Amino acid sequence: MSSKGGGTALTRRNYRLASDMDKPRSTGIVNEKLLSDYLHHVFPSTKQGPTLASLRKPLGFQDLPAHLEKLLSEDTPTEDGQAVDGRLGPQPVVLDHTSGFEGLLFVDDDLLGVIGHSNFSSIRATTCVYKGKWAYEVLISSQGLMQIGWCTLSCRFNQEEGVGDTPDSYAYDGNRVRKWNVTTTNYGKSWAAGDIVSCLIDLDEGTITFCLNGQSLGTAFTNIKMGPGIAYFPAISLSFKESVAFNFGSRPLRYPVDGYLPLQNPPAADLMKAHKLLGYIKNVLSTAIDTQEEGLVEKDCAVWRLHGEPTVLVTLAHIFNHFAPLMCKVYLVEDVLMNFLLGILEGGGSVDEHPLIQQLLDLFWLLMEDHEVNECLKQLMMSLLRAYRFSPIIPDLGFQIHYLRLTTAILRHEKSRKYLLSNLTFDVLRSVVFFYIKTPLRVKEAGLEELIPTTWWPTHFDKEGKDELEPKDESADERLRRRAYERGCQRLKKRIEVVEELQVQILRLLLNNKDKSTGEASRYIFLNKFRKFLQENASNRGHPTALCPPEYMVCFLHRLITAVRGCWDEGHRKSLSSVSSDGAYVPPQLFYNGKVDYFDLQRLGGLLSHLKKTLKDDLASKANIIIDPAEIQATSMDDLDEDDESGAAQRLPGAVAMGGALARPSWLSSPTLGRANRFLSTAAVSLMTPRRPLSQPEKVKVRTLAVEQRTEEDIEGSYGNDGLLLGRPLEEPDQPNADKSLLEIVDGIVMMYNLSVHQQLGKMVVVSDDVHEYAVALKDTEEKIARCPARRADILEELQKSQKVFAEKLNHLSRRLAWINATIYSKEKMLDIYWLLCVCIRTIEHADNTGSLFAFTPEFYLNVAMNAYSALKNYFSPANGMDELPGYEETLTQLAAILAKHFADPRIVGTDIKDSLMQALASYVCYPQSLRAVERIPEEQRVAMMKNLLAPYEQRPWAQTNWILVRLWRGCGFGYRYTRLPHLLKTKPEDANLPSLQKPCPSLLLQRHMAELLSMDKDMAASFLNSVLNQLNWAFSEFIGMIQEIQQAAERPERNFVDTRQLKVCATCFDLSVSLLRVLEMTVTLVPEIFLDWSRPSAELLLRRLAQLLNQVLNRVTAEKNLFDRVVNLRLPGLESVDHYPILVAVTGILVRILVDGDRQGDHPARDTTQFAHH
């Protein structure tokens, strides 16, 4: 729509000037002289010298198009696409996805991002160079095995050999810190995700150089092959799941190097035009027309408002006529527009203090076509994401703060925010990048040395090798160092909190549910995107390329908890009768009313389709929910009526070549963040376009659409409609919630924790473990130096070298640990995880009250409750004590009640979740604090738990049950007060925090319950003891069989190795035999009458069986020069726990009790047992 005529109809869109009617007439089109002065001021000519205003040719709107064209054509450089000497190939430069690759690869739709999908895949660009100096950049998205550099057309790659492994190819590998050209040598520094590698080739001098984040790593190769027929292509080889994105010049290079040209020409002509037009826009913003005085007034751009003066708008419309099409090009958006907007925010202050960005966005929506604004906003957001993700870390996190501030300013604009949220460009997938704070691998470059000048690490350890929290003999110097280090950590934490605060602000904008004037509120758009994000991560667990990286997920989880709790409490303050976020939980009806999609995730009672069939009557009677018979049938018939069309409809966008199974949100790979829609493969053609997606989610067809199409009313409800809370069971209190939509987000947060956050929290603990290990090694070395004799200078020198290495490593690690503690394990993050634990506990309690409907609860709620407790205990302590958490004792008791009740709950069918509950309970009773919590649960529940533990062992994983009973006894048995076996005391445990290495903490209360149950219920006592004796017979026989095999293997003359797995099984059978003997000792001690009261029908039989088994054990273990002795003396690794002491002490304990109690019971049984004992 170019403008041809004059007058006010020059705009590119028909818009109504809203404020025309309100303004006095004098603000209409101004008189000709003033207009001419104004236009000459806005569009100054560069060619003329400073002439007098009176000599200038008058300028009106009818002459403006020609004047503007003339100004824009002045000094314009020649056409961009011309061939430059020294380069061959098409422009724009992209990756050669037709013939220049080897192996399996995913390539993004912009042909610049790539992910490896096989052992070692290679790909090159479409353009090569043969003379001159050239550069391109690679944005590293994952820090694994990759070789990046240059190759010639003659290089042949395969799944083993890539760039740098052939004579005419040269590569840098920052994973192994080496350079490659057939042979390899050390070179450069290690790279990390978020780094930028610049690859420079000088074909005049014959050298190749690499830079990392703008710092040269030195010349890597000299005298490279040159001459006729030799030209070099940019190329990369990368292993499975590794990902990068290339910038050949389609965007401004982040670190341009003087003298080197990008492979792709910058759009010089467009660039000059865009800068000129931006200058004209700035002139408009800084000039006001004073109609009274008939003159122009200079004013501050920052206070400019879009008031609707026709003169200004028509002038801007002429400028946007040229400016708008340019703003659809990524290079210009990044180089011109983004830098201009960042400049506006440069002055500091809060984002609210810079309203100009809002005004400019209004202007964009007013004067640009919709498709232009959309493309411009998309490119602007992508550029900001890239800039944020690939900015180097500096001490004040200045770059990150800068880009987040602009993102916040843009998202404050309602129309822009909704466009970005609704369209894939600001899919939650991509926005997750904004909530991540990367951990610097190179402490020096991140400036942590200035921020934390003094380092410190623990130097006092207790007997078990654990750090002492408050060492008594800490020297004054150590105390000073520790305090200086803590102050440095505080400084760092404050800087990180600034970034986190901005990230929460962005989320608060996305969770806005008041902006309904322009259609659906942002929160409901976000909600549907968030659910889609969870679905992609939950259903693609087998395909790592499709998952959001766990380190992003951790940061996103914490920011989302902060934002959601903020919104929740805001609502609570307005309606005080509603639940506050401290009491938040997810009501049980969400799990069965179909309003929230749980994809095909396992429920406690099995699959949803099965539950709908079996529990449909309960749903009708308890929750007034009628399941449509057609829906039940559809679920079971789903696979039969699946036609081609629905398979295609369900495929995620981007899965064009590979089908649903390999569909991948490419934001993960490529910093260009485009969708991957090409799957390149030099083999496996049969993989292409399957008839239907490979992993069909169950019955997503109907329900996913419902999630996408849900409106605010479906979620929040209205009069007579409960929205998300439809189907409230009678047991559930009718308590109002601030916003129902927040319940679904809380549910999503719990799911996120289960998907990958817990795993990542466990992974990052490694750094503090490393600090501990190096600190122990350093202390050990220093002690050796102190003891080293003066005459052994050679040993002293070696020890001092080791000391220096350990100290350097500790300096580096302690600063890195400060960063990780601030971003992942801080007190605030601990409170977030604790809040999540409490949400899960309350949710499970409410669901449990609904009786049979408890089966609908997703399994992940129980998993998160157990894992969050484990994380608080093992990952956040000891830096942050758990005792300081609000209401911690009560929470421990609630969790104990859940474990005690549900480990044998018939409503739970999944074997994995049952095992997890059993293991959690076993771990719970190992620690005094959590064992006391089990003792605090109501007596009725404790007795029920003990009854379940004593149920015959044949019906369940008995080893875990037995372990729980043993832990309740340990510390009371004969010679059973040890933490570690006496013969192992000289060795250091690998992990002193293991449940099995805790000091004994027996529970007399639970022992009493056991005694009462066994003495009152004779049948149960008999079946329980028979199963224990059966298992003991099996375990000990298996153990003897195994040691016979080990002995035979050891006696063979040829060199042989015993399978470590076999040793492990052997040790396990021995440990089981000992623990079963201890349970028998416990029973004999607590309820001797089971064996010794002859009025009981089973007493004699049980005593005989016991005597036989003990006899068998003693014969095998105590006979002279027996098999047991020989295997123990072999001292095989893995069989450390196999020794005479544990098993003989257990047997002695049983015999002593029978002798003591037998004398009391009277004469008949005592005679038998006494004879056996003497034997």
UniProtKB/TrEMBL annotation:
CDD domains found in the cross-reference section: SPRY_RNF123
GO process annotations (BP): proteolysis involved in protein catabolic process
Catalyzed chemical reaction(s): S-ubiquitinyl-[E2 ubiquitin-conjugating enzyme]-L-cysteine + [acceptor protein]-L-lysine = [E2 ubiquitin-conjugating enzyme]-L-cysteine + N(6)-ubiquitinyl-[acceptor protein]-L-lysine
Signal sequence annotation: none
Sample GO molecular function, one term: zinc ion binding
Keywords: Metal-binding, Transferase, Ubl conjugation pathway, Zinc, Zinc-finger
Cellular compartments per GO CC: cytoplasm
Pfam families the UniProt entry points to: SPRY, TPR_RNF123
Enzyme class: transferase
Domain B30.2/SPRY: 73-253
Source organism superkingdom: Eukaryota
InterPro entries given in the database record: B30.2/SPRY, B30.2/SPRY_sf, ConA-like_dom_sf, RNF123/RKP/RSPRY1, SPRY_dom, SPRY_RNF123, TPR_RNF123/RKP
Record-linked SUPFAM superfamilies: Concanavalin A-like lectins/glucanases (SSF49899)
EC id: 2.3.2.27
This protein's name: RING-type E3 ubiquitin transferase
Organism taxonomic ancestry: Eukaryota, Metazoa, Chordata, Craniata, Vertebrata
Gene: RNF123
